[in-house]
Amino acid sequence: MVCSQAGQHSNTRRETPMPDQFRADHVGSLLRPPALLDARKRHEASELNDSGLRSIEDDAVAAAVRLQEESGIGVVTDGEFRRRDFRTGFVEAVDGLTMQTWDMPWHSGDGTRKVASHTWVATARLKQKGRIAADEYSFVRGLTQAPVKVTLIAPGFLVDRFWKDGVTDRFYADREEFGAEVAAITKAEIEALLAQGVSYVQIDNPGYGRFLGDRAHGTAEELERVLATDAACVAGVQRPEGATIGFHVCRGNQSSMWMGEGDYEPIAERLFGTLPVDRFLLEYDDERSGGFGPLRFVPAAKTVVLGLVSSKTGELEDAGELRRRIDEAAAATHAGLALSPQCGFASIADGGNLLTEAEELAKLALVADVARAVWGE
């Protein structure tokens, strides 16, 4: 359980974990408070300067840390409050990317609709100009003694989405060269965060959903390229004592809508057997994700974080049913298990899911309570 005791400590302090720690996990992003959303709009309109935005961000992050501590969840983040969306930490750390807007199809219980969405294209060779998440971690570390998680976008996703034929290939020989560079930037950030004392680095890839389900449109060659790029950012990374690296397989997350659906089976053996991470955070909140059978491919030394609690709706799951589903998953795998919401609550700042902050807190508390009931403190 998270300890909220205040105190002075070094920026390199790391809570020493027990085996299979972070039984009560969450994916990272939290609902942005209205004051923060308003401040970002005023900043973009040049009505609020950088220091004014930073002050409002600081207050919002501090409140988010208190919310997570109150919930009893096993690890805290900054809610991704300093990012416009899940990619912009990387985007703002490099030169060479140009933003474009297009209409992206999103799915919900009411059908499919297109929403104006941002993407970026590599229009020059990338040139790193700063760290991706150094400030995010250092600020949170000063607020809590709980283990701190930092989330990063997966390089495999960036290579898949930021490449444009006829543009990016003017600066890179092929996607493999581009992927190697993006993976190297990400790997350097992971190593720097671990050296700072981060307990938990999580890598997020919403792109694997395109290889699954009835809407699958990815080839075997494309899957192997994404996997190789993601593996390269973690290969050989030394974990200090108490540190862990997780990988979230996202299905898309905006305003309670999603992009991907389908059983993990088509990619399970390659995904779980290839990525040299310590834990997999998987969406399992409804029938979109299929059954637990693919978990047989997860090596026994790793942990599966079961995303059984929906971040897309305020309706609270039944604790008994969650425990039943954990038992069902345990029968399908030799890996360790943990529990979390299926995704973040607001992967995109102004596209947060359709629930209240009180409901978000209740979801996190439910995860913490069920995890303690199943696995103890």
Chain-averaged pLDDT: 90
The residue ranges in which pLDDT falls below 50 over 5 or more consecutive positions are 1-19
Shape-level CATH architecture: Alpha-Beta Barrel
Instruction: Please state the structural category.
Output: alpha/beta
Morphology: globular
Strand order of the largest sheet: 3-4-5-6-7-8
CATH class, named Alpha Beta
Write down the Rg: 19 Å
Task: Tell me the number of structural domains.
Answer: 1
Query: What is the helix fraction of residues, given as a range?
Result: 25-40%
- Report the order of strands and helices: HHHEEHEHHEHEHEEHEH
Total helices: the number is: 10
Textual characterization of the structure:
The protein is of the alpha/beta class and 377 residues long. It has a single domain, classed as TIM Barrel (Alpha-Beta Barrel). It is built from ten helices and eight strands. It has helices at 34-44, 50-71, 88-91, 134-141, 155-162, 175-196, 220-232, 265-274, 319-330, 357-375; strands spanning 94-108, 111-128, 149-153, 200-205, 244-249, 279-283, 303-309, 336-341. α5 packs across α7 and α7 (220-232) runs parallel beside α8 (265-274). It starts with 33 loop residues before the first helix and ends with a helix.
